[in-house]
Amino acid sequence: MDGTDPxxxxxxxxxxxLGNDFVVLDAxxxxxxxxxxxxxxxxxxxxxxxxxxxxxIEADAEAAARLTFRNADGSLSAACGNATRxxxxxxxxETGARALALRTERGLLACEDAGGGLTRVNMGPPVLDWRxxxxxxxxxxLHLPIPGDxxxxxxxxxxxxxxxxxxxxxDLAAFGPAHETHPLYPERTxxxxxxxRSPETIRLRIWERGTGVTLASGSCACAAxxxxxxxxxxxxxxxxEVDGGTLHVDWRDDGVWMxxxxxxVFDGVLTAAFLAALAETEPA
Length: 284
Prior knowledge:
The chain is of the alpha+beta class. The protein is 19% helix and 38% strand. The chain has two domains: 10-122 and 262-281, Diaminopimelate Epimerase, Chain A, domain 1; 151-253, Diaminopimelate Epimerase, Chain A, domain 1. The protein has a 17-stranded mixed β-sheet that branches. The two termini are 24 Å apart.
């Protein structure tokens, strides 16, 4: 993919990791400008393409590429683990490499072929200090002063992790937005509900900040696994069962490694008419 063709049609890839779906724009050759308005239009599942996150691939002097992410509401996201794995798989297939590094707001993230069609990424160390997550005031991040006794974790973006007896019984469409904008989280938060099924397995359901209910999320899976280990409910290596499938998370000394499947669904082209209509109706 080379960004735009002479008719200014914008090329993209549609990818997903366990149903956590992405539109990916390849801007390594330049010619692609992504605004919040463009992200919102692309993210519209009825009038655009639809995605949980938008990922933009850019050239980087020290890494295989640099990635930036936007949520479906157009807001920036500093981390997106499943999109990172999807892009890593695409670039490994493109180059024949079995390992590479991608730059995100989290820094350089190591990615590798895990075998069996799986891709692994090191999402970096979890953020456990209240200032860096960030939270609005000094609190114990292991026991937040919020009904339900959640745990706060940062994985490049903020997370609020609740432990429940039955994750599937939670009305996530109501529970998620009620906590996404909690005053303790000045930048809003991802919301996770976690059911511990064994010391090696957790069930996770996800409300993503700026997007809503998602079938999977790499950073959310990492945050949930870290929270469970910190509470002493599991070990540091766990199977994470999300609505879209299974991820494996291993909190090691060098960071939180997350492994799972990826899929490149199709390539597409946005028409000049779509882009022109967007320019006429919605300012950046």
